[in-house]
Amino acid sequence: MPSHHAKPPLFVDLDGTVIKTDLLFESVLWLLRHRPWILLLAPYWLLRGRARLKYEVATHAHPELSNQPRNPEFAAFLQAEADGGRDLILISASDERLTRRFANHVDLFLDAIGSDGRTNLKGANKLLRIQQLCGERGFAYAGDSSADLVIWRQAQQVITVNAADSIRRQFPDQESLHFDHPHSRIHAFLRALRPHQWLKNSLLFLPLLLSHQVTDSTLLIAACVGFISFSLCASSVYLLNDMLDLESDRQHASKHTRPFASGDLSLRVGFVAAPLLLAAAFIIAFTLSASFAFVLAIYWLTTLFYSLYLKSYFLIDAIVLAGLFTARIIAGSAAIGVVTTDWLLAFSLCLFFGLALVKRHAELMNLKRAGKLSSAGRAYRVEHLPLLRRLGFCANLGAIAVFGLYALTPAAAVLYRHPQLLLLACPGLLYLVLRLWKIARAGELEEDPVKFAMHDHRSQLVLALCAFVIWFAI
Each residue of 396-433: pLDDT tens digit? Predict the structure, then answer.
């Protein structure tokens, strides 16, 4: 390969080096989102070798390459080297067709080389290809993982990108360059689990509280076990949902910072952790009862279909979200062996349908400020804002009406000594609804109402007063 420059040609890895992610996993996720049935052939392809697997996946998948998260320090370095006339060659273990598509997009590389369906261009195979191209002349290599050590040991210049400290320490001399120190993977993993969202699973304690059995230690322990099971299942769902939403999250004003979308957390972690968390959730669930495990299974299957299909349908997504919140209450009832009343289910469905529409409203307000008209991966547009306000507010008012009517029923008289006192909570609930929609309409609401409730002290005070009223009515 001819070169007219003093610097040796620079061979650059793609996955983890130029981009933070891995195109094989990106392609598998694309298939899981758009053509999941094709993945049934993956074991057969893998039996024929990793290179064949990559070839077949690349044949059927079409991941978006324009918004792949880049390593910024190294991206600036590559641009400077290209501007200086240095020969840059992209060489990757990813399938060559994807590698060339990416190279054509960034327009920095003299050539692009990848796995061809027969040879997995990684480690020793990649070194052999580089040596065939360079002959006796020296070369520089930029990579990120321990698989690149065999190449670096033969390179004239060593460049590490997003590499672990244990790899960087092996090349301390001045001929080594190091870019983009990796973020804490543990911190990124904890962020991806979204432990703050476990607050939603506190709904499992609601049947225990409303049945006035909170002092029963056996039932309290059962509710706590159910909470742990649901939280593990929910985190498994969050991991899967974030992986399936990569393309839309990367176009979102705030969600592009999520661990998978930003590349701070490897997709490999998600593929391993999501099923392990789900398995742990069901093992714990079966220690309670088969009925609790059944509700958990329905919850997981619904969230799976929601992530794959239902979230893209107008209003249906909000109805499903309301159902998922209500499923937590049903699960709490199953955990302690009580029957959920129709009044509680109706209140929950109305309340959370309205809150789901609040969230969509907040997302659209953010898009409107950014000059966009629609939400990527969703069926909502800015012109839907008035409709969402009307439907959401009416749904929340419906929840308050259900609560007030329940206070006048014989069923309430069985559980409460002073059921009419429950009506005193209605003004507080009405205030919360009016305040929430006022803030949402002003465009001052974060997209997640749960985060709003966690940080808004005025709302917390009103909720505490409502809880006191309910306690006093017992």
Answer: 999 999 988 988 888 778 877 888 888 888 898 898 88
Task: Tell whether 341 is covered by a domain.
Answer: yes
Residue 250 lies in a domain: yes
Alpha carbons 183 and 464: distance in angstroms, whole number: 39
For residues 257 and 249, give the distance between their C-alpha atoms in angstroms, rounded to a whole number: 8
| 79 found inside a domain | yes
* Judgement on whether residues 442 and 364 belong to the same structural domain of the protein: yes
pTM confidence score: 0.80
Q: Is residue 353 part of a domain?
A: yes
Compute the C-alpha angle 306/308/310, nearest 5°: 40
Which portions of the chain are predicted below pLDDT 70? Answer: 1-5, 173-175, 370-371, 373-377, 447, 450
DSSP 168-208: HTT--STTEEEE-PPPPHHHHHHHHH-GGGGGGGGGGGHHH
Alpha carbon 283 to its chain's center = 24
**Residue 114, phi then psi, degrees to nearest 5:** -150, -175
* Residue from 269, 245, 247, 252 nearest 193 by CA: 269
Same domain? 169 vs 297: no
Give CA angle at 318 (277, 377), nearest 5°: 75
Amino acid at 155: A
In this predicted model, what pLDDT tens digit does every residue of 83-137 receive, in sequence order? 888 999 999 999 999 999 999 988 899 999 999 989 999 999 999 999 999 877 8
The CATH code of the domain that includes 88 is 3.40.50.1000
Q: Tell the burial category of 45 from Cβ atoms under 10 Å away from its Cβ (0-12, 13-18, 19+).
A: middle
Task: Looking at the structure, tell me whether residues 144 and 274 fall in a common domain.
Answer: no
367 vs 147: CA distance, rounded Å = 42
Q: How far apart are the first and last CA of the chain?
A: 85
When divided into structural domains, the chain yields a total of 2
Cα separation, 232 vs 238, whole angstroms:
10
Residue 20 domain boundaries:
10-182
| 176 and 199, same domain (yes or no) | no
> Which residue do the tokens 């520089």 mark?
140
Choose the final residue of a domain: 182, 210, 243: 182
Determine the residue type at 37. Answer: W
Helices marked H in 211-341: 217-244, 246-249, 259-262, 267-285, 290-308, 316-336
Question: Tokens for 307?
Answer: 């992530």
| The domain boundary residue, chosen from 182, 210, 241 | 182
